[in-house]
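ZP: hey, is the zinc ion complex queued? I don't see it on the tracker
AM: it wasn't, my bad. submitting now with these inputs:
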Amino acid sequence: MGRPDAVNIVILGIETSCDETAAAVVARGPDGRGTILSNIVRSQFDQHKLYGGVVPEIAARAHTECLDDIVAMALREAGIELAEIDAVAAASGPGLIGGLIVGAITGKALALAAGKPFLAINHLEGHALTAGLTDAIAPPYLMLLVSGGHTQVLWVADVGQYNRLATTIDDALGEAFDKTAKLLGLPMPGGPAVEQAAVRGDGTRFKLPRPMLGREDPHFSFAGLKTAVRTAAQKSAPLSAQDVADLCASFQDAVCASVADRVAKAMSSVEDKFAAGAERPFVVAGGVAANQALKSALHAVAQRHGFTLYAPPIALCTDNAAMIAWAGAERLARNLTDGLNAAVKPRWPLDPGAAPAQGAGVKA
Ligand code: KG4
Ligand code: ZN
């Protein structure tokens, strides 16, 4: 085994920003194409389940306990020695500081031991560039990131150049799914549970608000929708299984209508940035991209506006280290390396110059 032929960059990536401990080895060829040589993800779901959310201290400790093994597994599965790696990339923000420190220090130590450069990767840049790895999509493109912590529309002008066109002014979309599941007594993670229940539900039964519909700016809001679900649930209590299914379907319909409207606004604002006749890629990533109803709604809005929807496989849409390694490869190819003194940043917007959205809380 060893280093594959016809590659000019091989990167070890590390991801520890939330509750997944992950390591991966990714190669980048001279043609700019990527190949995943290994991609190990260990979820801490069971450790946090009892508390109904991610506990930062437990997360950091769990990363410490298993990261060495996960890295060793990633190298072994790739059939590659540490000495054959060109650089080590670690997610260095945004995220939970304890986990970020564990991943960044491990990455720096490995880089130092191997005598190779270190890359401090913005986790959001990992998500933003994944389509280059999975579908060979090169910037510029429009992207929607919908996860438990983020809801953003980004204009990806180039590697390292992002304009945040839209964000949520309150809850992230995944958070809204999770909170809705919780208040309806469904298991965590809430998104898949809500989607499953919605399959048997009537989405027209409860008249829920379509947040931000028609607003000039493309921002999102989900807190009011979640409250409307709570109010509707209280009115119908005690809830039968059919009530829960109908509430889930109604919630999901409202989400799809709102997100499609917001994305359409963002699409209109970037249409003139594409050359005439050029393909207009629209990439969706993040855990909520697993939702089939949302994907259909996004596909329809893309078609109406002359965009092509790209949805990377779900294992690469959710948190993983292959996306961190790939962002590292893209940056190394442009000589954008970092020193061993690179800081971890719990808050690290991809577009620091973006104006705050009106009403936006700390998460924006
Ligand atoms: O990207 P991700 O795995 O982790 C981070 O937030 O960083 O996203 C997790 C989020 C959770 O809120 C989860 O409920 C949501 O994605 N999710 C879904 C679905 N699968 C996962 N939401 C709606 N429908 C789904 N099928
Ligand atoms: Zn993420």
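AM: back. The chain has two domains: 9-135+318-349, 141-315.
ZP: great, adding it to the tracker
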